[in-house]
Amino acid sequence: MPEMAIGQYVREVRVGNIGVWEFVRVSVGAATLKVARKLGLRGYLPVAVAGKSRVDGEKLDLKPGDWVRVRSPEEIGKTLNSQGVHRGMLFTHEMVPYCGETFRVRNRVNRLIDERTGKMLTMKTECISLEGVVCKGYRTSGAWFCAREHLPLWREDWLQRVDPPLTGSS
């Protein structure tokens, strides 16, 4: 964990946003990750990337309510440039645990507010938010225990359309 943010993390425990054991678990993971990165045992990008040979996936034209499966880290890595970005969007460590899982599309997103400036940004390429998928801040250096639980945004290239899961018996 960044040393300058220790007070922020202690405050999260004090106000009840996270429990003591969750704090300890994530803190140990954060310290381990920091050491592994310094020793060159773990990279800063969450997946192996294609770099200059990156590819685009098919256009899915997803709509709210559609069901999708998040592609594997290997498939997503093929769409990423050397910085781990696909058409301006970063694929983060927080997104990896959702790979292989199935979700409903929450919304198509084409505008965002830049938190630094407060200005509305219109995206050149829309992205997707998924129901039940939030950033917990457990894996991202400098954002441990993200209290806002913001919605990670996905490129259609990282998703695969699937049939709705079966519910109940007939």
Question: How would you sum up this structure, described in words?
Answer:
With 170 residues, the protein is an alpha+beta fold. Helix content is 19%, strand content 20%. The chain has a 4-stranded antiparallel β-sheet, with no helix packed on it. Strands 2-3 form a two-stranded antiparallel sheet. β2 and β3 (89-90) form a beta hairpin. The longest helix is centred in the first third of the chain and has 19 residues, at 20-38. 17% of the residues are buried. The mean pLDDT is 79.
Based on CA inertia axes, which overall geometry fits?
globular
Main sheet summary = 4 strands, antiparallel
Distance between the termini: 51 Å
The neighbouring-strand order within the major sheet is: 5-4-1-6
DSSP summary: helix tally: 3
Extract low-pLDDT stretches.
Answer: none
Query: Helices and strands: which structural class?
Result: alpha+beta
Short key terms for the protein model shown above:
single chain; about 170 residues; two-stranded antiparallel ribbon
Short summary:
The protein has helices spanning 6-14, 20-38, 73-77; strands spanning 67-70, 85-86, 89-90, 102-113, 120-130, 159-161. The chain is an alpha+beta fold and 170 residues long.
Write the layout of secondary structure elements.
Layout: H1 6-14, H2 20-38, E1 67-70, H3 73-77, E2 85-86, E3 89-90, E4 102-113, E5 120-130, E6 159-161
Antiparallel strand pairs: 1-4, 1-6, 2-3, 4-5
